[in-house]
Amino acid sequence: MIRSVLIANRGEIACRVIRTARRLGMRTIAVFSEADRDSLAVAMADVAYPIGPAPARDSYLRHDRILAVAKASGADAIHPGYGFLSENAEFAEACAAAGVIFIGPPASAIRAMGSKSASKQLMERAGVPLVPGYHGDDQDPALLAAEAERIGYPVLIKASAGGGGKGMRVVTAPAEFAEQLAGAQREAQASFGDPKVLVEKYLQRPRHIEMQVFADTHGSIVHLFERDCSIQRRHQKVFEEAPAPGFSAAARAAMASAATDAARAVGYVGAGTVEFIAEGDAFYFMEMNTRLQVEHPVTEAITGFDLVEWQLRVAAGERLPADQSAIHATGAAIEVRLYAEDAGRGFLPQSGRLDHLVLPEGEGVRVDAGVRAGDVVSIHYDPMIAKIIAWGADRGEALQRLVRALDATEVAGLTTNLPLLQAVARHPEFAAGKVDTGFIARHADAVVPQVEPAGPAALALATLAVILEEQAEAVGRAQATPDPWSPWSLATGFRINRPALTDHRFRDGDRVIDVGCRFLGPARFQLTFDGLELEAEAAMLPDGSLSARLDGVHCRARVVRMGERLTVFQAGRATVLVELDRLAGVTGAEGVVGRLTSPMPGRVLAVRVAVGDTVAKGVTLMVVEAMKMEHAILAPADGVVASIAYAAGDTVQEGAELLVLEPLGT
Ligand code: ADP
Ligand code: ADP
Ligand code: MG
Hints:
It is built from 17 helices and 41 strands. It has 666 residues and is an alpha+beta fold.
């Protein structure tokens, strides 16, 4: 019996495990790094222990510290979540040696599936179909290049020990092979401590379809249907859904039997996912993830089972809570991963404070989050903020609920992929279930957000919020003065013998907009800007949202202030405006072209240009390695390289100016 469980993880998955463990009456023990001392998981757990500095290798990956906490706290079991130690066979063995239950498969199964190369060899022998490729041990670059030639371009190079899309390179022509191989090996070494790669045929428009399996220690193995995770960027999942749209019952049955065969072949126990790459009804084994998957909530939504509860029961030696005949799928569910990342800049991870965060709720909507407003998204970990899952009686209903849930989501302080999620969810091809792994790249123009000028509604709402804010301050001031009813204490703009007028100035990107406001009566205004005239009424509601009427049409909005930055949330859109001092000069528009800064703390890998070079927009200027991934610094416009501040090998801080590009003709 498990009475207490230690969660060797952080963020949303730590919170997720705590919820179920608590429901089952277990004591919950969290561990946290210095970066996470005030995190939601720490607050939720019955007790939480510090395990070291922010970098994962000094905290969440430290077997010794986690086992010491297990001992000190008397934990019966350790749930590793996903990532970190979840697929670490040595850790599973260390738990066993310390007399603590590792909630996961036997170390032997983790090992058998841990290498993409070795697991493919194993699956080949078990008769599971594979993508044509080379999975051997010989890593001679000439041999790998010859294998790529044999397989036929395009090919995909993958880190054998890989995960999270790291160390993965598509190579379209033989001439690029050597450079891409070197890059993949570097990333593989940096991320997994193992440069080994495999090479396989790169399928052009495949789908990622995976099968959830579960096994107990009594010899039962079941599947809990498939998930389609085809909507990806950088070979990593963004949308996941079940059932896979348009997947035939015959293909489902065939995949389920291949997946349970794979699990059986390695003596599997617990939750596992067998990932396949599919084309039509044909599918090929890709890898097995020997852990709970990030996207498990969609399976929970359609089956009604709690997979963490299943994991805990199986780990305690119980039988699976249901046999295959009792596992049914009802309706459809879609999950999205809300990431702190900039889709407009190559999906670059973002870090910083979540100044404002509102997550959706409602019928059929589930949110798994590990953060609250005010928390910091750290550079040290995965930039996922939350998962939003919508269930419906069919895919159409699930999608409609998802669209509404996304429109109700508000984040300020950090750039997120929310606009991309909204655009994909609204895309007609997605609605039609026509998904493949190239979807986001193919529809980049439609789904990667362009910077759009602020609309009239956003400008009006920002102005109204500023005025109401001033009025509220004036009321506060008035209440503090001897004569609170004096007309001089009001900020309504009404002045005896003077026109009731105020002026406001905002910056929207590079554009400066002046808004004039005439007070027509209590809470009634006439706004003029950009040659437009608009009548508005507004009131601040107790929950901090704005109730407004713009030219007669009523709407609800929220305007969040951070210093001079105002974020207007309205109709599912967030617009950022900077409030400028009306009397100060206009600033901000000049000099924005050429200062190229490092997106994150990192190291310069290569400098591709020299001072004086004329470069075209989009050309790679520098390559910076950050968070173990290589990021290309691209020319934002045509220009001339005026100066270069760093050389290959230099360490750079976030925001460090890397080079200056001058516009052509200056
Ligand atoms: P899933 O396969 O469950 O859908 P991902 O592949 O995105 O999800 O990985 C789950 C999480 O674990 C992500 O946060 C990812 O960054 C992290 N992760 C994946 N593989 C590894 C690994 N080998 N080492 C450390 N973290 C990993
Ligand atoms: P990871 O460990 O990072 O999850 P996977 O082997 O599961 O690595 O692959 C991640 C993603 O890369 C897949 O979901 C798929 O989109 C893409 N991918 C993998 N193999 C191929 C292939 N042979 N052809 C095309 N795309 C592939
Ligand atoms: Mg995978």
